[in-house]
Design a protein that fits this description.
21% strand; Chloramphenicol Acetyltransferase; single chain; 474 residues; 16 strands
Length: 474
C-alpha cells in the first residue's frame, strides 16, 4: 500500500482540528433537471453507485493513524476497501423544499465531523427541491485538498454538453494525465537545486520583511501589519453548530463597478464585505473604531498544476469598516490591497509561501496553544475569491445553477466568507458559528444592499436579475 507524507500546511489543518473547529470545507451545488427528467432522476445514479465504483486519489486516501490525527508521523495511505455507501448519502426535503429548508439541512450537515477512519469526505445527494430541482453538497477535510484542487476536480466531473448523460461523479474520475506538469531536473541535481531555490526564497522574504518593517514605522502607511486587527465579536470562541447563508450577483456588474472605481474585482468584493460587516456590527453595537482586517488567500500554483494537497499564500488588507462613505471605503480598500501586492510583486512562488507562513505564524500558534478567541486576533475575517468555470456546466443533463462555497469557522474566526465565480455570476457563501454570531443570515441581505449603494454612488446601473435560481438566506 502506497503512502504519502503530509505537507506542513496539511499537518497544520490537522493540528487545528478539535471538537469545535472542524477543518473541513464544502460546496453546495443546486441543479435544474433537464426537461425530460423523470421524477426519480437520481435513482439510476444511486443504483449505479451501489453496484460499485472505483475511487481514485485523493478520494481513496485516509490517514495512517486515524485514532491519533495529530501524530507528527502522519501520512496518507490508500484505503484498500472504501465504503461508497458511507461516503455518498441520499437525503430528501419535504417536497416542495425551499431554499431556506435546503440551507437548514446543509448547515446541519456542515456542523458534523468527518470520520478519519475513512477517507475524510462525504457527498450528499439532496432531492425534493421545488420545481423538481436537486442539490449536491460535498465536504472534504482541508488537509486532503485545498479549494484550488476542489475547483479543478469539479470542472472535470461536470460537462459543458447538456447531452452528456454518462459522466461519473468526481470521486470516480481518474487523474487527468494531460494536466500533470512536466518537471525537468536541473543541471545542479534535485537536492542541490531545491536547496538553492529555498535559499533564494528565504533571501527574498528577508528583504520584503525589512521593507514592511520600514514602512510600518512611517506615520502614514497603507500596508497592514501583523498586529493591526482590532478586537471584535467575530473573533471569539465558537461552538460546533453552523449557520450558512448564500447570495449571488452578476459578475459583469461587479466588474463594471470595479472599473468605475479604478480598482479590481477583488477590491469590490472586499469593499462590499466591509460595508456589510460595518452595518451588521453597528446593529449589534459592536463595531470597532479601527478598520477590520481581512486575510485573503492567494493561489500560487502555476496554471498547469494538477492540484492536490495545499499550496496557498496570503495577504492582509483593510476592509475600511471605519469609513461610512461607500466610495471612500473602496478607496481605502484599494490602497491597502495595492500596498500588499507591491510587496509580493517579483517574489517567487516559494518565497510567497514562506512569507505567508511567517506572517501568519502568530495566528497558527494561537490555534495550537488554544489561545485563539481569547487574545487579540491577527486578522478579523478570512475572505476568499475562487475563480471558477466561465461556461454553464451540466451533470447528466441537469444544469448547474451556482457554486456556493462553505468554509471553516475556527476559534478566533467565527465567520468565513468565500465567493466563487461561475458562468457570469459570483456566488457568496457565508459560513459562521451559529452560537457566536446572531442573525448571521442578515449578512447576505446587507451585502446586496451594499452592492447597490456602491454601484449607485459610482453611477453604475443595476443589472437585470440573475437568471439562475435566486438563493435565499438560511
Amino acid at each position: 500500500m502506497s503512502a504519502r507524507r503530509l505537507t506542513p500546511n496539511d499537518m497544520l489543518f490537522l493540528l487545528s482540528e478539535s471538537r469545535e473547529t472542524m477543518m473541513h470545507v464544502g460546496g453546495l451545488l443546486p441543479f435544474t433537471p433537464p426537461p425530460d427528467a423523470p421524477p426519480d432522476f437520481l435513482r439510476p445514479l444511486i443504483d449505479e453507485l451501489r453496484d460499485g465504483v472505483e475511487l481514485h486519489p485523493p478520494w481513496n486516501l485516509k490517514l495512517s493513524q486515524p485514532t491519533v490525527i495529530k501524530s507528527p508521523v502522519q501520512s496518507w495511505i490508500e484505503d484498500p476497501a472504501p465504503d461508497i455507501e458511507y461516503h455518498v448519502r441520499r437525503s430528501a426535503l419535504p417536497s416542495p423544499g425551499d431554499e431556506r429548508e435546503l440551507g437548514v439541512l446543509v448547515s446541519r450537515l456542515h456542523g458534523t465531523d468527518v470520520d478519519f477512519h475513512h477517507p475524510p469526505w462525504e457527498t450528499h445527494l439532496i432531492e425534493g427541491l421545488e420545481g423538481g430541482r436537486f442539490a449536491i453538497y460535498t465536504k472534504v477535510h482541508h488537509s486532503l485538498i485545498d479549494g484550488f484542487t476542489a475547483m479543478r476536480l469539479l470542472q472535470r466531473s461536470l460537462s459543458t454538453d447538456p447531452d452528456d448523460r454518462d459522466r461519473p461523479l468526481f470521486f470516480a474520475l481518474p487523474r487527468d494525465p494531460s494536466s500533470r506538469a512536466v518537471r525537468r531536473p536541473s543541471k545542479g541535481g534535485g537536492f542541490l537545486d531545491a536547496l538553492r531555490v529555498q535559499f533564494e526564497a528565504a533571501r527574498d522574504v528577508a528583504s520584503v520583511v525589512r521593507d514592511i518593517v520600514r514602512t510600518l514605522r512611517e506615520p502614514a502607511h497603507d500596508i497592514v501589519g501583523p498586529l493591526e486587527a482590532p478586537m471584535c465579536i467575530l473573533n471569539g470562541r465558537i461552538g460546533r453548530n453552523r449557520r450558512f447563508a448564500t447570495q449571488q450577483y452578476d459578475l459583469e456588474h461587479l466588474k463594471a463597478i470595479a472599473k468605475a472605481g479604478g480598482g479590481k474585482l477583488n477590491d469590490v468584493v472586499l469593499a462590499i464585505t466591509g460595508a456589510t460587516l460595518r452595518r451588521f456590527l453597528l446593529e449589534l453595537g459592536a463595531l470597532p473604531s479601527r478598520p477590520l482586517i481581512a486575510m485573503i488567500p492567494v493561489n500560487v500554483r502555476p496554471k498547469d498544476d494538477p492540484g492536490g494537497g495545499n499550496a496557498v499564500g496570503s495577504m492582509l488588507a483593510s476592509l475600511g469598516t471605519d469609513v461610512a462613505d461607500p466610495v471612500g471605503r473602496l478607496e481605502a480598500v484599494m490602497a491597502s490591497t495595492r500596498a500588499a501586492k507591491n510587496h509580493l510583486e517579483g517574489m517567487s512562488r516559494n518565497a510567497i509561501v514562506q512569507l505567508s507562513a511567517l506572517m501568519l505564524l502568530p495566528s497558527g500558534l494561537q490555534q495550537i496553544s488554544g489561545t485563539s478567541g481569547r487574545i487579540r486576533p491577527q486578522f478579523n475575517v478570512v475572505i476568499s475569491n475562487v475563480p471558477g468555470p466561465e461556461r454553464p456546466l451540466y451533470f447528466r443533463g441537469a444544469r448547474l445553477e451556482a457554486v456556493y462555497p462553505l468554509s471553516i469557522p475556527i476559534h478566533g474566526q467565527a465567520l468565513n466568507i468565500t465567493c466563487q465565480s461561475y458562468a457570469g455570476t459570483l456566488s457568496f457563501g457565508f459560513t459562521g458559528c451559529r452560537d457566536t454570531l446572531p442573525h448571521l443570515q442578515h449578512l447576505a441581505v446587507y451585502m446586496g444592499e451594499a452592492l447597490d449603494e456602491l454601484g449607485a454612488a459610482l453611477g453604475v446601473d443595476a443589472p437585470p436579475a440573475v437568471t439562475s435560481q435566486t438563493p435565499a438566506t438560511h
